[in-house]
Amino acid sequence: MELLEIIKSLSNETRLNILEWLKDPFAHFPEEELSQDTPELGVCVSDIAKKAGMSVPTVSDYLKTMSSANILIATRKGQWTYYKRNEKSIQDLATHIKDKL
Amino acid sequence: MELLEIIKSLSNETRLNILEWLKDPFAHFPEEELSQDTPELGVCVSDIAKKAGMSVPTVSDYLKTMSSANILIATRKGQWTYYKRNEKSIQDLATHIKDKL
DNA sequence: TAGGTATTTAGGTAATTCCCTAAATTTGTG
DNA sequence: CACAAATTTAGGGAATTACCTAAATACCTA
After folding, report:
1. A54 CB inside 7 Å of strand C
2. I want to staple B42 with a disulfide (CB 3.0 to 4.6 A). Which of A16, A54, B8, B84 is the partner?
3. Nearest C-alpha of chain B: how many angstroms from A6?
4. Is B101 helix (H, G, I), strand (E, B) or coil?
5. What is the pLDDT of residues A47-80, one digit of tens each?
6. What's this model's pTM, rounded to 2 decimal places?
7. Is A94's CB within 8 Å of B91's CB?
């Protein structure tokens, strides 16, 4: 639990938004572009980039930052990299702030 | 509750350290330099700057950033400005992350 | 193997953050 | 009022972050 790294990974509006969107992909992304196993795998880079209105490389880097901080989980499947939230880490963060910060 | 503003105010190692130190001023600052009502008022800018090993203006600005985000509470008394933690806001942050992030 | 799609890596400019010194302000005191 | 102590404001250089385009890589499929 690298608190500073986690906090930095969240200290950007777009990255916070991505975390929100991934809470409920079906509410935030066009259904036809979601993989059939989205709840399990998450959403792929280019769909997130489109939603964010930013370039794919920028968003790819954001997602990598958040998964390095262990806040997102990446799954490579074929040519796609899917990202989903790491709910455990998010809860651990909340607990850490509550009890230790 | 401006989540992004709060997170940004915490996204720096020195500022995180300050928050830690203020959890227990008697454990982190020389007793003789603490005000007699430190638990109530907190610790003054120059003592925090000394502990941080940074210039007073830099730390003054850090403290202002954190109190603007409502994570610290500032109290001016005479020529000193004392800062203490806003425990309520810190708990609110934890709860927000747990339930809403 | 050739070509297409998705992603990542490289490299660069602009914006923001870090953190300093100097100057200005606030408050207390003789 | 004059001076001293604590803090804040201004201003600036260095480092980091934001976010882009171009190029490279990975993987699929004919």
Report:
1. no
2. B84
3. 9
4. coil
5. 999 999 999 999 999 999 999 999 999 999 999 9
6. 0.95
7. no
